[in-house]
Design a protein that fits this description.
The chain is of the alpha/beta class. It has 7 helices and 11 strands. The protein has 2 domains: about 180 residues, Rossmann fold (3-Layer(aba) Sandwich), CATH 3.40.50.150; about 50 residues. The chain has a 7-stranded mixed beta sheet, with helices on both faces. The mean pLDDT is about 90.
Length: about 250
Amino acid sequence: MSREWFEPYNPTSPFASLYEEEFKLPLERTLEEVASIEKIIQSMDNKPRVLDLAGGFGRIGSLLVQGGLVGSLIDLDLNRRLLKVAQKSGINNAIEGDMRYLGFTADTFDLVLLMFTSFGYFVTPEDDLKVLQEAKRVLHLGGTLLLDLPNYDRILQNFSPERDLLLLDNSKIVYRKELVGDLLIETRTRIFSDMNQAQMPPIRLRIYNQKSAGDACLRAGFSAVHAFDQNLQTYEPTSSNRLWLVCTV
């Protein structure tokens, strides 16, 4: 059976050995996001049972657990190596799995998190819809899905086709972006200090704006969808850094 392009054990996956270095976020951003999630939690009657979809090494989940903000938390991710890191950070329930096919019974969770642009990598929009439908299924009545997306309106308005990233070994990754239909495709070339080059697997991400993502959540069965920025302030398509959709069952 062939592996999908994004799977960590596919030797051509972009989410393999360089993941932590290539996709590392500043601590300030993580703390800002956790503070906003805490506000969502404070609006709930009890400490929630949380499912952190594509939670990886526990960037968000570990801080929620360490802060005593949750009743329980499960980190679900495809990457076994990152889940081992999550366990070392205090997340006892770190489970390898596919978020299109959750192995939980209905009404299991109060809050589902889908953070850090973890939505939109599947080949078809139907697979994306499966993720949302599964999130809705495992939430109890009144439960919440927090869907964290880039603000593509702002990105496309200020579109830059090329960027680069210097790695710790002094090699550099050069990224080149192009829009193909509703996909943002980013090709990646690694340039080493001796100027040798290696092509890296591209990243393909489906573009969702406030309307298309909100419509998908409603099709998945959520009763209400509200848009905010990452500080839970009013979402502004031209200026907000992130698009947060708070979806209620």
